[in-house]
Fold this protein.
Amino acid sequence: AGAFKSDTVVTQGYWNWITTEKVQEVAREHFGCSTLIGAPLENGGGDGTTNSHWESQHLNFEYMIGTQATSQVYVSKFTLALLEDSGWYRVDHDYVGDVYSFGQNSDCDFFNDNAVCNNWPQWYCASPGVEGCTADNTGIAYCSDSTSNVFYCDFFSPYASIAGVDVNDFETLCVDERGNTYDTTTAGASIYGIDSRCVRTTLSGGGRSGYCFQHACVDWDTATQQWSAVD
């Protein structure tokens, strides 16, 4: 125990893949693709990022990606599966939740190439600089520009600063009630707390399009992997 086989990492297409038994099982179930050989590793960034983190294009806001894609991060089944496959850890699956949703049930087409970006608007964005919400709707964000890497899609990233002022992660995280002290926007209904999520909206006076509101999700659409409405 405690050692991976030599064929743990396999190169296929644009990425190197972790192909251990549990990781492969989790990847096939999560993405809804029975032919996946495993989970992809990051192919961009510097020496401390490339091939040492999960691929952010497919496993965004996972704890072990190499960039900050959202203020809310998740230790998902992928990371736990890798720890278990190492032989050094045991995972009690009764306590492993299913709250990580990025790319869920997106099928094998999710891994074809960067043309996938326009096919999955629930995970990616198309206009760099546009304001809105992170893909998991936990915080306000802007559409990042990844044109420097042809293998990447643009996605909503949390703000590092707003109006030239550096901000803490919690200040853009809707589920953190400390944001109520920070956010002094004209949206009087903005409320931060455990029952709040980011909602993309357009105000008559302009301004940013992502705001934190208390809400309840209505009618999950399994085809689009989105809620049909928010109350």
Notes: The radius of gyration is 18 Å.
